[in-house]
Write a structure and sequence with these properties.
Blueprint (H helix, E strand, L loop, with lengths): L2 E7 L2 H15 L5 E7 L10 H6 L7 E2 L7 H19 L3 E5 L3 H12 L4 E4 L11 H12 L2 E4 L2 H9 L6 E3 L3 H16 L2 H5 L7 E4 L3 H4 L2 H14 L5 E4 L2 H9 L10 E3 L4 H10 L2 E4 L2 H9 L4 E3 L7 H5 L3 E3 L4 H9 L16 H13 L1
Parallel strand pairs: 1-2, 1-4, 2-3, 4-5, 5-6, 6-7, 8-9, 8-11, 9-10, 11-12, 12-13
Helix pairs in contact: 1-7, 1-16, 3-4, 4-5, 7-12, 10-15
The structure holds uridine-5'-diphosphate.
Uridine-5'-diphosphate binds next to helix 1, helix 12 and helix 13.
């Protein structure tokens, strides 16, 4: 019997993670069928469609076009739309990724209809409940049947919450994607030439977490630090729409003058910049790990991280959002010679699909 999986995605990092798993599902025709729902949370061409095109993700069957509004309003509209689709499609599984409002809505809608939920990136914790992502991931884990963890630490986090059943360490799907894209990045991206950059001689920065963008003090300190670093080397900043709006709202747009600001980049261009950067500064979960995969020193613009291994192994420094601390971390950067082997072997997607198939049979 074919196992029908309804995948809910909505935000940039979810398209990237789903790319690996969708590709794996397509390798088992007749055994597993995927129906993809895009909630619409990220909808701009360069935050959404470009990832479907570059990573060969099948077009979603449904697009709920839910974007903007408060967390409650957005999640509520998603819940309503996803529930309607679940009642029509009657899948064997609902598959959700990560920690966004789309994750929460997909998991809750399914659990209320007694449809089992599989959560990819289960068990991650920042232990900071002021982060909307932390609430989303805790609730998604609570209602999930299969908790597909990226690391041993994520398994331990769940165990310390008393959760063992259905939990497994499958490895990190983002590592699968990084391996899949390595050759394509080299052959397809021309971003270094386009921006006039030399490998190893620039910094790459991203900033979009609400704790930074919604707090003008943190945001202006981060921007001031990037301006200081730009006196040593070019700083490339692919600007997230939320950050652009926030800089505008708080009168901080002038801070961008010293930086090489771009629109959000397609994935292969982003990978090319990450691989060639001298240092990466970020508050993104995915980018912290990619820095580690590529052996580029990372400075994280947060006070804590879910990806604790990157810090413990010496690949990542937590600098918070203080100007001096960020600049000092960049100046102190060093890299251990050994790459970490904590994110799996690039076969996470295959383990995820096997888990779905065997739990359904
Ligand atoms: N990314 C991208 N283009 C950009 C910025 C990020 O392709 O301009 C990729 C990045 O390489 C990583 C993913 O988007 O794979 C991370 O997404 P994001 O930072 O939005 O979310 P998070 O990982 O923090 O949940």
């Amino acid at each position: 019997m074919t196992c029908k999986v309804l995948t809910v995605v909505g935000a940039r990092p979810q398209f990237i993670k789903a790319a690996a798993v969708s590709r794996e599902m397509l390798r088992h025709p007749g055994q597993i069928e995927e129906v993809m729902v895009h909630t619409g949370q990220h909808h701009d061409e360069n935050m959404s469609q470009v990832f479907f095109d570059e990573l060969d993700i099948p077009a979603p069957r449904y697009n709920l076009e839910v974007c903007g509004g408060t967390h409650g309003a957005m999640t509520g509209r998603m819940l309503e739309g996803i529930e309607r689709i679940l009642l029509d499609e009657q899948p064997d599984w609902v598959l959700v990724y990560g920690d966004t409002n789309s994750t929460l809505a997909g998991a809750l809608a399914a659990a209320k209809l007694h449809i089992p939920v599989a959560h990819v990136e289960a068990g991650l914790r920042s232990f900071n409940r002021r982060m909307p992502e932390e609430i989303n991931r805790i609730v998604a884990d609570q209602v999930s049947t299969l908790l597909l963890c990226p690391t041993a630490l994520a398994v331990d986090n769940l165990a310390s919450e008393g959760r063992r059943k259905g939990v497994s360490n499958v490895g990190d799907v983002m590592y699968d994607v990084a391996l899949y894209c390595a050759d394509r990045t080299r052959s397809k991206s021309r971003i270094l030439e386009q921006l006039g950059l030399q490998a190893g001689q620039f910094a790459l920065a991203t900033c979009h977490r609400a704790e930074n963008t919604d707090d003008p003090r943190r945001l202006s300190e981060i921007m001031a630090a990037l301006g200081d670093i730009a006196q040593q080397m070019p700083v490339v900043l692919p600007l997230h729409p939320r950050t652009r709006k926030s800089l505008h709202d708080h009168g901080l747009v002038a801070c961008l003058r010293r930086l090489r600001v771009t629109d959000p980049l397609p994935f292969l261009d982003m990978m090319a910049l990450e691989q060639a950067a001298n240092v990466i500064l970020t508050d993104s979960g995915g980018v912290q790990k990619e820095a580690c995969f590529y052996g580029v020193p990372c400075v994280t613009l947060r006070n804590e991280t879910e990806w604790v291994e990157t810090v413990e192994l010496g690949f990542n420094q937590l600098a918070g959002a203080r100007r001096e601390a960020i600049v000092a971390a960049v100046n102190n950067r060093s890299m251990p010679r050994q790459r970490p082997l904590v994110y799996g072997d690039g076969q996470a997607a295959s383990r995820i699909v096997s888990s779905l198939r065997s739990a359904a049979s």
